[in-house]
Structure formats: C-alpha cells, structure tokens
Amino acid sequence: MADSTQAETVETVGSAQPAKPSKDEKRAMRLAHQITAFAESHGGSAEGQLAHIGRGTTRIALVGANGEWGVLVAPSHETARRAAELAGLTLEDEFDGEMAAKVRTGPYEWTRMAGMQIGGPANP
Length: 124
Known about the structure:
four-stranded mixed beta sheet; alpha+beta; single chain
C-alpha cells in the first residue's frame, strides 16, 4: 500500500525538439569556425581585436602565432564577440604597437600599403 503523505511526482517525457540556433548564433558559429581554421593554419593560435567599421558591422582583425594576419567582418559587435568567445580567441582592447609588432608583412603589403606612396613598384 502506498504512503499517501508523500507527494506523487509525475515525470513527463516530452517530445520537445531542442531549440534551433538563431540567425545571429548561426552567423557567430560560422565566424567561429573561420577563426578556428585561421588559427590552426597559422601557428596553432591567434589573437584578435574588434573594431566598429560602420553601419553596425564589426571588423575582427586576426593575428596568427606565425605573424600572418587576416580580417573577418561580422554583421554586429555582439555577433563578433560571440564568435570570438566560441572560437576561444584572445581579444585585445586595441590594435596597438604590441599587437602590430607581431604582424609579419610581405612584399605585397609593402607595395600595396606604402610602396606606391614612396615610389615603389606599382601593383599589377
């Protein structure tokens, strides 16, 4: 005979589907995948910096452990921050001298960014 003083608990096994990620979360996941791929192909790690670039978009500047650099663009600052979090990216507050010193530039960057102004070869 059951003890009537104990509350009876009923467990409901629901057929609820797991919540689908939002559009912003999907974008963040896609960017996180790109950040992770960049880090893996450029020395195994990377660090980054977020900067507003206009119309709500945010630039994610990446510097790999080997000095290679790249840029991704996120549709919002929140999406960029979430992508960095998902990828485990170390974020710097500013792209200052310490971070810039880690960037390795090659001949293309010199001719593209400075060479034209100082009489260097023209880009093809």
